[in-house]
Amino acid sequence: MSKAAISIMAYGIYALGAGVTFLLVPNMALPIYGMEPAADHWITTVAILTLGLAYYYITAARTENRGFFHMSWKGRTWFFTATLATVLLGKAPVGMLLVGSTDLIMALWTVWAIRQDERTS
User: Fold this and answer.
1) Tens of pLDDT along 34-44?
2) What is the distance between the alpha carbons of residues 21 and 87, in angstroms, rounded to a whole number?
3) pTM to 2 decimals?
4) Contacts of residue 64, Cβ cutoff 8 Å, sequence gap at least 6
5) How many domains would you assign to the chain?
6) Please, are residues 36 and 97 in contact by the beta-carbon 8 Å criterion?
7) Residue 39, domain extent
8) What tens digit of pLDDT does each residue of 11-60 get?
9) Nearest CA-CA partner of 21 in 1, 38, 7
């Protein structure tokens, strides 16, 4: 498995954990991000989407889908930027930067890994 695939697999496992957590015990996780406990279905929808993303990431890592690797770091960087903007605009709690920052750090890991793989091939 390439270094880039390992970084993608790690993100897939992270997304799997987040999806399962938001599906099974959302109100334990939401306060970590400064959010109120969910009283409606929105967190279940987020959990289902996150589990779908986990499947994409894990499958892409297992199949060495390099096109996906390149798309994913850009998408995760966008997610950080959008999360930062929503926090700065007062539309999301500051704790959401924990999620966005995790995506950014893991995206930077993927960029580094892609470059390392290109140097060794």
Assistant:
1) 888 888 899 99
2) 23
3) 0.92
4) 1, 2, 5
5) 1
6) no
7) 3-120
8) 999 999 999 999 999 999 899 888 888 888 999 999 999 999 999 999 99
9) 38
